Every structure is written in structure tokens, then in C-alpha cells.
Amino acid sequence: MNILVIEDDPSVRTLVKAVLEHNGNSVSTADNATDGEANAVGNDFDMIILDLGLPDGDGYEVCKNIRDKNVTTPVLILSGEQETDVKVKCLKVGADDYLTKPFNTEELIARMDAIKRRTESGGEQQLTCGELKVDLLKREFSIKSEKVQLTNNEFNLLVYFLKNRNRIITQEELAEKVWDIHFDTQTNYINVYISYLRKKIREHSEVDYIETIRKKGFVFRCE
């Protein structure tokens, strides 16, 4: 993979670069938010590893800005903060996963592999449900042949719903299977993302595909 590492701590940056290259990856680096964001927008990377604490900004803004510019490259955020609300905030700005410092290098590779699995098609090319169509290879979503822009997290959520249509899916299952993250699902995080997805579908369709089952979870109806 071609990977961008945005990290201001030289020791962490050197370690991550060495580990990734040892595993056969090509690695570019940046030590500040400005250069990192410019690299992320101007180049075609397979993954971005992004530190939260940067000298001229923070990783939240970098992630949000590149998502606003339609960069869909998977983002793994690194941070010394461990609180659940920090993890939730990272995901809300469009990150695909979160890893707490200090971290084991094996866990870093495992997290990256998990992101890769979630963003790959697994051999399938398309998923359809009524007027909805998902191209897994191009990672594109359309309704009535009109393309609908989704974030990585929204796209992965939709794909999981489509692959598990017509059955109840709990918040715990979504947290684990879509984001590979275990946290208190009593937070509003899952509901927020489902609300985002519902809103984008309803902007192009009159059908309510996502049904909330009280105290149980959600069903993506595709009869």
C-alpha cells in the first residue's frame, strides 16, 4: 500500500515508517497539519495515519477538511487520549479507526488490516436494493442512477446493512462490525450516523429503508 503518515513526533514517525516499510508498504511523511493535508488532497494514497496533536493544528480539522474535499482515503488516527468521547469525535469527522498511544506495532498492522478488510469488496462487485445500487469496486452509491456522496463510515454502514438486510442488527454489532471498535453504545454515536445515512437516502427516495426496532436495533428493509 501507498501510505501517508502525518505525525510531528520524530521518534513515532520514524518507528511507524520503519514498521510499514518492513511490511512492504511505500510510505510518505509529513510533520505538520498544513503539509499533511496538502499531501492527502494532492496525492492518491491507500491509507492515511494521522496524529491528533500537530504543531499548527489538530488531526480533527485535517480529517474533516480532507473529507470536505471528497478525499475518501481510509484514515487511522493516533492519539494519547483514551476517552470514549475522543474516539467518537474522531469517527464523526470521518476517521475510519482510532489507535491509542503508546501502541504495539502488531496492533497498528492489525488495525490497518481491519480497515482494509472493511473497505474492500471481498469479491462482490455490486449490491442492489430496489432503487439503491452500490458499486463495491468503485465505492460509489447511487439512487435511481443518481450518485449520492457518502463518507467512508456512511458507505461502510450502508454496505453492512445491505449485506445483512431484513434482519435486526444491534448497535453493538454495528460498532464492532462496521468500525471494529468496542465502546459504550449508549452514546448517541450509532444513531447519529444512521441519521446521516437516512437523510441522504431520503433526499433522493421516498422509501424508508432503515427501520428502528425499539430496544433491539435496526432493520434495513429490502423486500
UniProtKB/TrEMBL annotation:
<dbReference type="InterPro" id="IPR039420">
    <property type="entry name" value="WalR-like"/>
</dbReference>
<keyword id="KW-0805">Transcription regulation</keyword>
<keyword id="KW-0597">Phosphoprotein</keyword>
<dbReference type="InterPro" id="IPR001789">
    <property type="entry name" value="Sig_transdc_resp-reg_receiver"/>
</dbReference>
<feature type="DNA-binding region" description="OmpR/PhoB-type">
    <location>
        <begin position="124"/>
        <end position="222"/>
    </location>
</feature>
<dbReference type="GO" id="GO:0000976">
    <property type="term" value="F:transcription cis-regulatory region binding"/>
</dbReference>
<dbReference type="GO" id="GO:0032993">
    <property type="term" value="C:protein-DNA complex"/>
</dbReference>
<dbReference type="InterPro" id="IPR001867">
    <property type="entry name" value="OmpR/PhoB-type_DNA-bd"/>
</dbReference>
<dbReference type="GO" id="GO:0005829">
    <property type="term" value="C:cytosol"/>
</dbReference>
<keyword id="KW-0804">Transcription</keyword>
<dbReference type="InterPro" id="IPR036388">
    <property type="entry name" value="WH-like_DNA-bd_sf"/>
</dbReference>
<feature type="modified residue" description="4-aspartylphosphate">
    <location>
        <position position="51"/>
    </location>
</feature>
<dbReference type="InterPro" id="IPR011006">
    <property type="entry name" value="CheY-like_superfamily"/>
</dbReference>
<feature type="domain" description="Response regulatory">
    <location>
        <begin position="2"/>
        <end position="116"/>
    </location>
</feature>
<keyword id="KW-0902">Two-component regulatory system</keyword>
<feature type="domain" description="OmpR/PhoB-type">
    <location>
        <begin position="124"/>
        <end position="222"/>
    </location>
</feature>
<dbReference type="GO" id="GO:0000156">
    <property type="term" value="F:phosphorelay response regulator activity"/>
</dbReference>
<protein>
    <submittedName>
        <fullName>Response regulator transcription factor</fullName>
    </submittedName>
</protein>
<dbReference type="Pfam" id="PF00486">
    <property type="entry name" value="Trans_reg_C"/>
</dbReference>
<dbReference type="Pfam" id="PF00072">
    <property type="entry name" value="Response_reg"/>
</dbReference>
<keyword id="KW-0238">DNA-binding</keyword>
<dbReference type="GO" id="GO:0006355">
    <property type="term" value="P:regulation of DNA-templated transcription"/>
</dbReference>
